[in-house]
Amino acid sequence: MDMQQLARRAKAAAIHLAAAGTDEKNLALEEIARSLEARSADIIAANARDMERSEKERLAPPMLKRLRFDEAKIAEACQGLQSLIRIPDPVGRTLSAMELDQGLELYKVSCPIGVIGVIFESRPDALVQISSLCLKSGNAVLLKGGREAAETNRILADVITEASDRAGIPKGWLALLETREDVADLLGLDAMIDLIVPRGSNAFVQHIMNNTNIPVLGHADGICHVFVDRHADPDMAVRITVDSKCQYVAVCNAAETLLVHQDIAGTFLPIIQQALEAKGVEIRGCERTVGIIDCQTATEEDWATEYLDLKLSVRVVDSLEAAVDHINAYGSGHTDVIVTADTKRGSWFMDHVDSADVFFNCSSRFSDGFRFGLGAEVGISTNKIHARGPVGMEGLVIYQWRLMGNGHVVADYSGQAPRSFIHRKIEKPFPS
Amino acid sequence: MDMQQLARRAKAAAIHLAAAGTDEKNLALEEIARSLEARSADIIAANARDMERSEKERLAPPMLKRLRFDEAKIAEACQGLQSLIRIPDPVGRTLSAMELDQGLELYKVSCPIGVIGVIFESRPDALVQISSLCLKSGNAVLLKGGREAAETNRILADVITEASDRAGIPKGWLALLETREDVADLLGLDAMIDLIVPRGSNAFVQHIMNNTNIPVLGHADGICHVFVDRHADPDMAVRITVDSKCQYVAVCNAAETLLVHQDIAGTFLPIIQQALEAKGVEIRGCERTVGIIDCQTATEEDWATEYLDLKLSVRVVDSLEAAVDHINAYGSGHTDVIVTADTKRGSWFMDHVDSADVFFNCSSRFSDGFRFGLGAEVGISTNKIHARGPVGMEGLVIYQWRLMGNGHVVADYSGQAPRSFIHRKIEKPFPS
After folding, report:
1. Using N-to-C axis directions, what is the helix angle for A320-330 and A343-352, rounded to 10°?
2. Which residue of chain B has the CA closest to A408?
3. Whether B372 and A401 lie within 8 Å, measured CB to CB
4. Among candidates A229, A223, A244, A255, which has minimal Cα distance to A338?
5. Which of B98, B113, B351 sits opposite A19 (nearest CB)?
6. Which residues on A lie below 8 Å from B371 (Cβ)?
7. pTM above 0.80, yes or no
8. Nearest beta carbon to residue A360 from set B243, B352, B405
9. What is the pLDDT along chain A (432 residues), one digit of tens a residue?
10. Which of B217, B366, B389 shows the shortest C-beta gap to A410?
């Protein structure tokens, strides 16, 4: 089947999956977990072939680690499925209800988005997680995983498809894309695909964003800042800066720029330099920074660079306002942190920084769906609409307006002696 | 100033407007209402020039009616401002809160989207309504109104700008675009504009959607259906069909296609034909319809046409499922109605029709922000994300995650003897 056929099938399946009951979806998740365990030998064998080929191709060790899908990873995936079963169904919830007039009631009811296209890195656990999140939220999904994981992804998609078929989930709700051409085709199918979630390098995500009319949920850059205010506790500022920069450097929520209030730069910069150098971090400072500590000079480009590495740009700023201006000018709207003992200044920072996540006295590394308690994470969004920051299953649903009447017509509310609307909020779930 | 400068100014203003308090915004709305009244003579004179020119250009009478902005319209606009003042501020609401760990609290707080570009028809009241909705929801706005209303729009934008300046709202939060070139430029400014709301003809909206990377909120087609089920009360079905088609034909929520269950087609079609012909509606029927009543034969194109006129396509369908399939294939995801006495079949219809609004035993014409009790309407969206159906001020806000810590770092939650997260929902507004 070509991409268009797969997408058409997915759209047809999505209509029926949207109406599937919670029990039906949970039974399918159970069946998927059972099948993953039952087929674990085959899955591990397929993964071994992916690992072997990738080792030959000299894939970097951290990538190899993500690629591995062994007994322990399968067990983890099954645990993930069990906890997803326990999460309340996000579909069919009455978000609000209003009596428009006698016998005319309006309900805003949550529903799936429809067909989601997800493009993800060479990480087989992501396939299980994403497809189960889509299933629970009633969405059909078109999946494109990294080339390195091709064999593992194929068997995982087969196992999930067969298990969900057995559980009575509409056929075609999941499809695996295999080639880059498939992805190019997918980007053009805006009549059938409702949302694209790209995960991967910023260049790749940017490419997706620039080449489709389909809404894209995600983020390209993650240029996160830590601002150390003049009222910061220096010890706390060191701990937060080091954690934000070093706890895991290759991720989007790691800090790339440190902003330091001029009033404490003289004392704080030498301390933070020592702490960062102990972790192997290279500092690129503004001219004022270079006047205080010995480091390379930052260029204009540094402020807009996501290093994803043991590098940190450092700038001394005149004021809280100047820190916020820097962040709004160079940041990517992902996660920005203020360290200060002054809650008023903290509030001002949060009110004025135009980012998905604004943190007060804690590390940027907390910006994550699991840490936020959202359960599994679909991705982190720097969009300004729909969903922002770490996105859990809530980001995969939208709502439908359902109006229940008894022969009501608009003509009665206009002309001579028109009826009036009542518009009274009611606490009542949609009658099902 | 060119478009880029206006947008940059708007973005800078948006940052500060996002942090403006409710009182500040309400005072500005008061001041705008006062100024509209104080300047009413000048506004009416400007509108008279627009009317005179448009009459000379032989603008159609319904368009002239929309263009008129007289004493009564000004009073109505001021009433609208007063009721907007009474609506609770949509910004700064705590949507959820969670204790992640001791002293580490996460808040999801509503905030403005940022800079909204709105392109609207030649209707001066829309300018006042849209700009006041943006102000109350803390968004900056770039407005482009219809050419016919140029002079009225200019004076209204001036009055609103001056009044909001006096009330201390950040300068540059509102700008009026004057030319088509401005609009073309606006579509390219995705770094500065966060959302475009186009109102107008479907060809125009489609053009906007196809020519920008900025998210677009709105709808192109409004191909709405009424399905008369075999269990429909015929009198009710007639009333609802006639209202849906005829109550106001030139609008997106008017019905364009009537679907009739085969079991009642023989008796219902002659009745509805009589009722529709009495209203001057021309029927285009499928072959089975033509076999029952005397009318033109519909072509494949008819099913996908938004007539916006006294025309209705009519199709006899085999079943509830066939009706839903027709709607999902030819509809535009706007508003679709079932008329039936069987609530189970009504629920099945609503569960399976993939449209923003699904109605049970009432007219499609209820699909409207005012009738829904949303207050003023930003537009009607057929998007699948962010906001669907009639969109009130809620569609102009999003949220920001605010994490309040006390030196918390992620390193403490990993490695040996890691801390665990608590992840306990708390009922507590963000501390401000």
Report:
1. 30
2. B362
3. yes
4. A229
5. B351
6. 100, 410, 413, 421
7. yes
8. B405
9. 789 999 999 999 999 999 999 999 999 999 999 999 999 999 999 999 999 999 999 999 889 999 999 999 999 999 999 999 999 999 999 999 999 999 999 999 999 999 999 999 889 999 999 999 999 999 999 999 999 999 999 999 999 999 999 999 999 999 999 898 999 999 999 999 999 999 888 888 889 988 998 999 988 889 999 999 999 999 999 999 999 999 999 899 999 999 999 999 999 999 999 999 999 999 999 999 999 999 999 999 999 999 999 999 999 999 999 999 999 999 999 999 999 999 999 999 999 999 999 999 999 999 999 999 998 788 899 999 999 999 999 999 999 999 999 999 999 999 899 999 999 999 999 997
10. B366
Distances in Å between the Cα of B330 and the Cα atoms of A246, A315, A317, B285, B390 are 54, 57, 58, 15, 21
Distance between CA atoms of residues B357 and B337, nearest Å: 8
Give how far B51 is from chain A: nearest CA, Å: 26
Question: Distance, in angstroms, between A388 CA and closest chain B CA?
Answer: 7
Q: State the nearest Cα–Cα gap between A57 and chain B, in angstroms.
A: 31
What Cα–Cα distance (Å) separates residue A119 from each residue in A124, A359, A376, B22, B75? 12, 29, 16, 42, 53
Could A352 and B194 be called an inter-chain contact, meaning their C-beta atoms sit closer than 8 Å?
no
Top CATH class, A3-217+386-396: alpha beta
CA-nearest residue to A421 within chain B is: B371
Domain with CATH 3.40.605.10 in chain A: 3-217+386-396
Q: Enter the tokens of residue B99.
A: 């204790």
Burial of B41 (0-12, 13-18, 19+ CB in 10 A): exposed
Nearest to B410 among A243, A357, A410 (CB): A243
Of B213, B363, B403, the CB nearest to A359: B403
Closest CA to A336 of A303, A302, A362, A369: A362
From the list B156, B158, B175, B141, the residue with the least C-alpha distance to B3 is: B175
Every domain of chain A with CATH number 3.40.309.10 lies at 224-366
**CA–CA separation, B339 and B328 (whole Å):** 17
Q: Is the ipTM of this complex over 0.90?
A: yes
CA nearest to B210 within chain A: A213
The boundaries of every CATH 3.40.605.10 domain in chain B are 3-217+385-396
Distance separating alpha carbons of residues B398 and B380, to the nearest angstrom: 18
| Shortest Cα distance, chain B CAs vs residue A402, angstroms | 5
Are B386 and A386 in contact (CB < 8 Å)?
A: yes
Side-chain half-sphere CA neighbours of B196 within 13 A: 31
Q: With contacts defined as CB-CB under 8 Å, which chain A residues touch B106?
A: 372-373
Pick the CATH number of B3-217+385-396 from 3.40.605.10, 2.40.50.150, 2.60.40.2550, 3.30.830.10: 3.40.605.10
Q: Could you tell me how many CB contacts below 8 A there are between chain A and chain B?
A: 237
Distance CA B141, CA B132 (A): 10
* Secondary structure letter of residue A174 according to DSSP: E
Angstrom CA distances, A113 to A14, A107, A191, A399, stand at 9, 18, 13, 8
Q: Is B292 helix (H, G, I), strand (E, B) or coil?
A: helix
Contact assignment for B355 to A410 by CB distance below 8 Å: no
Is CATH 3.40.309.10 the classification given to domain B224-366? yes
Of A18, A328, A350, the CB nearest to B351: A18
Both tokens of residue A32? 């998927």
Nearest to A396 by CA among A376, A372, A426: A376
To the nearest whole Å, the CA of A419 is away from the closest chain B CA by: 12
